[in-house]
Amino acid sequence: MPRIHFVEFGGREHLIDVPAGTSVMQAAIDNHVPGIDGDCGGECACGTCHVYVDPTWLPKTGTRTTSEDELLNFAAATQESSRLACQIRMDDTLDGLRVRMPEGQH
Ligand code: FES
After folding, report:
1. Residue from 34, 61, 50 nearest 86 by CA
2. Taking the model in full, what pTM does it have?
3. Strand, coil or helix: what is 67?
4. By CB distance 3.0 to 4.6 Å, which of 16, 33, 60, 77 could disulfide with 28?
5. Pocket flag, ligand 1, residue 46 (CB < 6 Å)
């Protein structure tokens, strides 16, 4: 199973094993990782799953979808590495993925 490193805004880390096919948002919810609410259930409509992808992982996670990009335009503290965690689906190529949560989400 691929693993995800979640890093809370305050620096606390969570290393989670997730079944392939699970979104990064769902992995956080299922494992009670603070800082990701996923209010819309992964429909790319709420922005409460905003994460910063570690720059070394950006080539593997791919780029934002159009609707994801539009939603992130309204998010606070958006960075180049910002993604919506519900739009990143885990597979073995993402084993070890590292994401950080923004300041507003804790
Ligand atoms: S869970 Fe709502 S945008 Fe990701």
Report:
1. 50
2. 0.95
3. helix
4. 33
5. yes
CA of 11 to the centre of ligand 1 (A): 22
| Ligand 1 closest atom vs CA 41 | 1
| Separation between Cα atoms, residue 77 and residue 102, nearest integer Å | 7
* Ligand 1 mean position, distance from CA 76 (Å): 14
| pLDDT tens sequence across 45-90 | 999 999 999 999 999 999 999 999 999 998 889 999 999 999 999 9
Q: CA geometry: angle at 39 spanning 96 and 92, to 5°?
A: 20
Tally Cβ neighbours within 10 Å of residue 66.
8
Block residue for tokens 């096919």: 21
